Please model this.
Amino acid sequence: MNEIEILLSIALGVGLAAAAGLRVFVPLLVLSVAAYGGHLELDPSFAWIGTLPALLMLAVAATIEVLSYYIPGVDNLLDVIATPAALLAGTLAAAAVITDLPPLVKWTTAIIAGGGAAGLTQGVTSLLRAKSTATTGGLGNAAIASGELGGAVILSVLAILAPIVTVGLVLLLCWGAVKLLRRLWLGARGAAPPV
Model:
């Protein structure tokens, strides 16, 4: 594998991992569909993701996860559970698509880049949902759930079709997340957010 292919596989892994921070099972389902359809090469130790049983299992899990986020109260509980699950899913998704690297480099990259991207997106959406719950009594959470679902699908599909573009989008989202967190933090402290 040449350097360009290695960079593309890492970019693909980061994109899928960031999507795992929005919905744990959606990017894994997209990954499974792409691998099952022969559009994506997986690391041999993750070949099971591209099988029909895995595809069906992930489809059921993604459906349950998506629908559960529309139930008031359950969505906030799911954020508590989803945080460690997103870190794991992001790491696994990245490791599954990073091929032909030595195991130490592969897993270090998957944990830091994959787990980090998933953790960041999950953390931001959890804070956003908590703020929505506090300000709207949970009535605004369905809009957030829809946005997260759309973001997870778009990032996952885009990661497979255009990995480098996806990394740019993830970096842009990270920048926006920092600005949003700063605004939420300053707003929670009673200070006026910067203009």
User: Anything to note?
Assistant: DSSP finds seven helices and no strands in the chain. The radius of gyration is 17 Å.
